[in-house]
Amino acid sequence: MTELTDSGTAFSDLLVEVFRLNGLLLGAGDELGRPAGLTSARWQVLGVIDHQPGTVADVARAMGLARQSVRQTAEALARDGLVSFAENPRHRRARLMVLTPRGRRALRDVERRQAEWANRITAGLDPATLRAATGTLRDLGQRLRTGSSGGGADPSDDGVDPPGDGVGPTDGAAGSSGDNVTGPVDRDL
Description:
Layout: H1 6-33, H2 40-51, H3 56-63, H4 67-79, E1 83-86, E2 96-99, H5 101-122, H6 127-146
Region (Disordered): 142-189
Pfam family, one: MarR_2
Organism: Plantactinospora sonchi
């Protein structure tokens, strides 16, 4: 068995804390989003397309998630009138997800609560320490994406959505809302 180096041990300890924090953040995100009718998964998807419309593949790539889980959440958002799908001038099958006015209101509502929550949670913490932690997590994410960790991105992912327009039914949608996006959070909760 390979022995962990000091860096490997520190990284392994960090992973355990990141996994714990991820669960706490998803729970907090669900609580913050509930009054606006959002789960953490829905909030994450809306947050990505708030900046510009994107395909399911674009959103999945930005969030570091599988397209199928993002697709299921996107379909639930469309059913609830929070997003719509528009033609994509760059690709005829991969339609663009666009925030609807209702989706934008829900996102702004949860962002307001998130700002209050973030200010409360971080009161008394050194911003420089938080920025350093953010930088370290970004560096580690980049190493994972480029494969220097032995893992990395799926080389078969060409960025094109599988057939379908992203609004039809899917098999195995999780839960009554179809939300099942879990994993890294690109946005602050």
